Amino acid sequence: MNGGSEAPAVVVRELTRAFGEFVAVDRVSFTVARGEIFGFLGPNGAGKSTTIRMLCGLLSPTSGEGTVAGFDLRTGAETIKKHIGYMSQRFSLYDDLTVEENIDFFAGIYGVPADRKGERKDRVLRMAGLLERRASRTAYLPAGWKQRLALGCAILHDPPVLFLDEPTAGVDPLRRRAFWELIHEMAETGTTVFVTTHYMDEASSCDRLGLIDGGKIVALGTPEELRNRFMKGAVLEVRTSRPEDAAVLLETFPGVRSAALFGNTVHAVVDDPGAAASVASLLSTGGLADATVVPITPSLEDVFVSLVEGGRPDGVPGGEGTE
Asked: Are 101 and 139 in contact (CB under 8 A)?
């Protein structure tokens, strides 16, 4: 099913994958537009990796349907592999090869034409900042350079769709920021980027997000839409010298849905947005006289915790979410 230049890059309808009695992905549905940066978030075991493996043609769906780059998941798995790039947190590189040998290897895997190989190799070396280290063994490269090299190898064949599975895990914040600048540059040229991440600042940089939990999509939308539409209750920020004790106390208060540590503070989700004064009073009575409580705008992490702990929000049928 090749839908032409305006067709979405990824279309998934009721996609399901079961392993015996265990349903890892349960009737998920979403669409990713061409040139979009689509973030996929969920706790460990939520079904993220299983979904990506189906989209990359590595795992057959149990039921449902979908297309990637216009090719059917069921009948075009091998073709899909030729039209996507893939990069995981392990960087998919061979440490015993040099930088240049890794590029040559992936150029062969992806079938880069001989008359384009030199230009593509030079592009990757420049992007990764490795022109002067092309003969270095990859094992000795710092994590940031490995990361850029792995990305370059994944896009040697100019794939229209790029899958990044937690690509910045273990990379320092400065390198993560530089990496995301590259992601945005690729999206601006029309590449569709499908990325999983545990970093909420990265999630906020995506055009749209899909939140998955227990194999089901619990919300879909832009970061702003998720903050505005899917937050269950108001959020109070609690500051105290004993945040761990405050979190335990807050869980016992009426009207407090949940409480979680956020650095040196505690975020409490409450039914009543005007409950700051009463919560502060209860904390003081409980022995935390220094506690200050103020209402705040929910962060994306607040929304994520609320959805995962509270289940599917009202108005999100089946696995559809909103689009």
From this structure: no
Separation CA 209–CA 32 (nearest Å)? 10
Q: What is the pLDDT of residues 24-48, one digit of tens each?
A: 999 999 999 999 999 999 888 899 9
Residues 172 and 33: their CA atoms lie apart, in Å, by 30
Closest CA to 93 of 105, 110, 78: 105
Q: Which of these, 233, 267, 245, lies nearest to 259 by C-alpha position?
A: 267
Residue 318: pLDDT band (50, 70, 90) is very low
Q: Which range marks the domain in which residue 206 is found?
A: 10-221
What is the pLDDT of the chain when averaged over all its residues? 89
Place of tokens 């769709």: 161
Helix (H) or strand (E) holding 164: strand 161-165
193 shares its domain with 246: no
Q: For the domain that residue 265 is a member of, what is the CATH number?
A: 3.30.70.100
Q: What is the pTM of this model?
A: 0.82
Q: Is 244 found in the same domain as 107? A: no
Q: For residue 156, is it within any domain?
A: yes
**CB proximity list for 173: less than 8 A, separation 6 or greater:** none
Whether 314 is in a domain gets the answer no
Sorted by sequence, the CB contacts under 8 Å of residue 136 that are 6+ apart come out as: 98, 99, 130
CATH number for the domain including 36?
3.40.50.300
The position carrying tokens 């022109």 is: 131
Using an 8 Å Cβ cutoff, are 200 and 215 in contact?
A: no
| C-alpha R_g of the chain | 22
Contact yes or no for 211/217 (Cβ under 8 A)? yes
